[in-house]
Design brief:
alpha+beta, five-stranded antiparallel β-sheet, four-stranded antiparallel β-sheet, 12 helices
Length: about 375
């Protein structure tokens, strides 16, 4: 009996040690998963959106060795009273307004600062679209009407088989994808757990098989479409996204701070929403787009691409918000009025006729409520009209 107890003790000790080793090995994954599970909690969301590296793997996007480009100060504007109320009600964390390329308002709220690199969420989609335009001009991509599988063969036999690059840019892939952020079991939240636990985004996209409609026949906003585009861009250029974005857009813009990208466990950038920049650096990108792709004396993104991507082209429902090539337009958009938009209230709004660029970062847990997006656009328009 004593011998049995002795061996049982040894086995138990070995199991305890093994559990400790596994616990240490998995500690980082467990910590990330816990951070993801509280990412949007009321008491943590503001800080989390300035520190996404606590929840996800990240890689730097080098800013290059060039000087910081100037964002000169202009006459200080007085915000309309309704905008002041809106800032508080929508948990706005930063607001920056450019008129004629000059800062007329810059403010930070809820404890955030100008140095914070704030998460872009789907504003990142518009950065990727700009890279697609550059690659198209360079001849790395032959045509937007090419099937995505020409450049990303891993998507063959998935729901993306037969979908074109243009359809991905316009969100008409026809993919069946549940983007309900409030449903734990939705496709978008399953994707988030794959990301947080170091899984493969490429594998996740290639494993999607359900279609809701034939490609090109119906508009439905599907975030994973942007990852399929990123897979095609990587295939067309033979380059990873962080280095490509750094070389072709970030370095020429002369940013103040080095951005970073959230990545999956294979180091693949989370192209559909994982870019982190300071508010001023988002403004530099917006100013470049407002100036038809030109910034600091050089043409960064082709003029024709900016023109084509920032006007309505997707078959959105009549009377609803309009969509171009990874850019939004209000339902009653004026010429030259468009915006990039991310969940929880992130915006780069451009009114070219007024020469206005507005950047908003927020931590708005009520972003899905009826009328919120319309109220946000009303606030941005109110700011532009007050200048």
């Amino acid at each position: 009996m004593r011998r049995i107890l002795k061996w049982a003790g040894r086995v138990l000790l070995a199991l305890v040690l093994a559990a400790a080793v596994v616990g240490l090995w998995k500690r980082e994954e467990i910590a990330r998963l816990m951070a993801v599970n509280t990412l949007f909690s009321e008491e943590k969301i503001v800080a989390n959106f300035s520190g996404m590296g606590r929840a996800f793997l990240t890689v730097p996007v080098p800013r290059g060795n060039g000087p910081v480009s100037d964002l000169p100060q202009g006459p200080e504007m007085t915000l309309p009273a309704d905008v002041t109320d809106w800032i508080g009600s929508r948990n706005v964390t930063s607001l920056l307004v450019l008129r004629n390329g000059r800062i007329t308002h810059e403010s930070y709220h809820l404890g955030t600062t100008a140095q914070d690199r704030r998460i872009s969420w789907s504003v990142a989609k518009s950065f990727l679209a700009a890279l697609i335009g550059i690659s198209l001009e360079r001849g790395e991509i032959d045509s937007l009407d090419d099937p995505v599988t020409r450049y990303a063969p891993a998507l063959a036999d998935s729901a993306y088989d037969g979908v074109t690059l243009r359809q991905l840019l316009q969100m008409t892939s026809g993919l069946e994808f549940d983007e309900d952020y409030l449903d734990y079991d939705s496709d978008i939240n399953r994707m988030g757990r794959v990301l947080a636990l170091g899984g493969s985004m490429d594998g996740f996209a290639a494993g999607l098989s359900a279609r809701a409609a034939p490609p090109g026949t119906r508009w439905k906003y599907v975030s994973i479409d942007t990852h399929a585009l990123a897979m095609a861009l990587r295939g067309a250029t033979g380059r990873a996204l962080p280095g490509l974005l750094s070389e072709r857009i970030i370095a020429p813009l002369g940013l103040e701070a080095e951005p970073d990208y959230i990545t999956d466990g294979e180091g693949v950038a989370f192209a559909l929403g994982g870019l982190n920049l300071t508010t001023r650096d988002y403004a530099r990108f917006g100013l470049m787009v407002a100036k038809m792709g030109r910034y600091g004396g050089q043409q960064i993104v082709p003029t024709g691409w900016i023109a084509a991507s920032t006007v309505p082209s997707a078959p959105t429902p009549e009377g609803a918000l309009q969509y171009g090539l990874h850019w939004w337009m209000p339902a009653d958009a004026r010429d030259g009025e468009f915006y990039a938009h991310g969940i929880y209230g992130q915006y780069i709004y451009i009114d070219r006729a007024r020469d206005v660029v507005i950047v908003v970062t927020s931590a708005d847990r009520g972003f899905r409520k009826d009328g919120v997006r319309e109220a946000n656009i009303d606030a941005l328009r109110s700011i532009a009209a007050a200048l």
